[in-house]
Amino acid sequence: MKQYEMWIGGKWVDAESNKTYPVYNPATGEELTRLPLGGASDVDTAVIAARRAFPIWSKKSQAERSQIVSKIAALIRENAQELGNIDTLDHGSPLKRAAFSAARLSDRFEWAAYNARSLMGHTVPQSSDVLVYLQREPVGVVALITPWNIPLGMIVQKLAPALAVGNTCIIKPPSIDSLQALKLAEILEKLELPPGTVNVVTGPGGTVGHALAIYRGVDMIAFTGSCETGKELISLSSQTVKRLQLELGGKNPIIICEDADITSAATEMMNGQMMNSGQTCAAPGRFYVHEKVYDKFVEACITSIAKNWVVGDPNDEKTTMGPLVSAEHRDHVEGYIKSGIEQGARLVLGGKRPATGPLNKGYYVVPTIFTHVSQKMKIAREEIFGPVACIMEPFSSDEKVLEMANDNTFGLCAHVWTQDAARGMRFSNDLQAGTVWLNNSIGGGPELPWGGYKESGYSKEGSLYGLYEYTNLKRVAVDIRSLKK
Ligand code: NAD
């Protein structure tokens, strides 16, 4: 069993308490290893290290900093297979995709390194005697608090822009899925980063995350996770008026009109629903299907699942769906399935664990479809975060379906499927969501912004808008007449 330490101030260290906690392989239920149980005193050490590193890292020329950040991209590609293997081990991601997903993250560092070099300020016209200019500066020490659903991806989305523009960082990875973050630290160790530029503190959110949120020496929290934790962070960080970036949950509406390409819609939307065992913030949450194509769409969904989704050991080449991340999360998803049945939704597929064999030891739930889900049911209102598709009662009026699609506390993303361009554009305009896809589900690179409306959070990740989140904008006014030399 490999022993792990945390990475603080450029050193590998145990928790000050010397305590550890176990992490498990979700495919087998077996203990994989133990990690340092970080606490408030470890956060203290990490913040002091990050504060010390800040003047050194932030004062490097942008060109030098960008060159170092570009090297991270190359090292991520070199280590993609190992990073992928780790993802399979502690998260249960099918091996076939895991290395590919890790390699793709190098693009985030490349994009941030390149674009940070063009982070221009402005001058603002005043009078010929007065020069006013605006410049962007790094915020300072940024705490990255991230979820388990895409363990490395969620860190990289924040780390790449934060580092590239000159911040120093403390990563608080998800406690159950921290191994990729520690491997990333091993990669970063090979670079000429000042000690403390990036730190990784492992341990539970309630202690490590809490300590970061209230610490005066932390200037910004970049958070992705649940709405409940997001709300708690708003309250905790208010004590020191920290910058807060929030990427929270979703219960995303999908509108399928009667003139849609039903086979494409069903295939793409089931892929979105079942990918990563449904543990994706952008997964469809509520399908609104026109009454004229309702049965046809349900049939097409069932067919597409039979064709594309194989539940199994994530190390098996044939597997496309691995286990859920933990026993606790499997119980949580099963609780929603039970609630759907009790509240009268029709279970037309799945709803259970795999029948027999070795998979029983892992935390598996098979692809599940409910139909005739009504707007008030718990499974229609809350994020399930599992391989469970909720097809709502059929609709017949565009006006009514738009109202129902917007009737939710979340506003992360939405899909519309119709071949009527004007109808599609009207829905896109009126849906309350940070991203709307019309007849597609094309993914996004680092140049595209991502972020929700309503309780799905605020601020943007990705794109120049996302890069700016990690900067302060300073106004400098100079009276030229006062300058002597
Ligand atoms: P979570 O809120 O339980 O945990 C997220 C992180 O916060 C973890 O590192 C956790 O240890 C930490 N944390 C927990 N309690 C804390 C506290 N009191 N103070 C400080 N930190 C604390 O979320 P999760 O279960 O890991 O992730 C799933 C959620 O993430 C879902 O709601 C999903 O929709 C959301 N998510 C959103 C996006 C997006 O882009 N909007 C992307 C991925 C996941």
Topology:
Blueprint: E1 6-8, E2 11-13, E3 20-24, E4 31-36, H1 40-59, H2 62-78, H3 80-90, H4 95-104, H5 106-116, E5 122-124, E6 130-138, E7 141-145, H6 151-164, E8 168-172, H7 179-188, E9 198-200, H8 205-214, E10 220-224, H9 227-238, E11 243-247, E12 252-256, H10 262-274, E13 284-289, H11 294-308, H12 327-342, E14 346-349, E15 368-373, H13 378-381, E16 388-392, H14 398-406, E17 410-411, E18 413-417, H15 421-430, E19 435-438, E20 453-454, E21 457-458, H16 463-469, E22 471-479
Parallel strand pairs: 7-8, 7-10, 8-9, 10-11, 12-13, 12-18, 15-16, 18-19
Antiparallel strand pairs: 1-2, 3-4, 5-6, 6-22, 11-21, 14-15, 17-20
Helix pairs in contact: 1-8, 2-5, 3-4, 3-7, 5-6, 10-11
Nicotinamide-adenine-dinucleotide binds next to helix 8 and helix 9.
Helix content: 25-40%
What does the overall shape look like? globular
- End-to-end separation: 66 Å
**Extended strand count:** 22
The total of helices stands at 16
Structural write-up:
It is a single chain. The protein is α/β, with parallel strands linked by helices and 485 residues long. Helices cover 39% and strands 21% of the residues. The protein is built from 16 helices and 22 strands. It has a six-stranded mixed beta sheet with strand order 9-8-7-10-11-21, with helices on both faces. Strand 3 (20-24) and strand 4 (31-36) form a beta hairpin. Helix 1 (40-59) crosses helix 8, helix 2 packs antiparallel against helix 5 and helix 10 (262-274) crosses helix 11 (294-308). It is globular. The termini are far apart. The model has no long low-confidence stretch (mean pLDDT 97). The structure holds nicotinamide-adenine-dinucleotide (NAD).
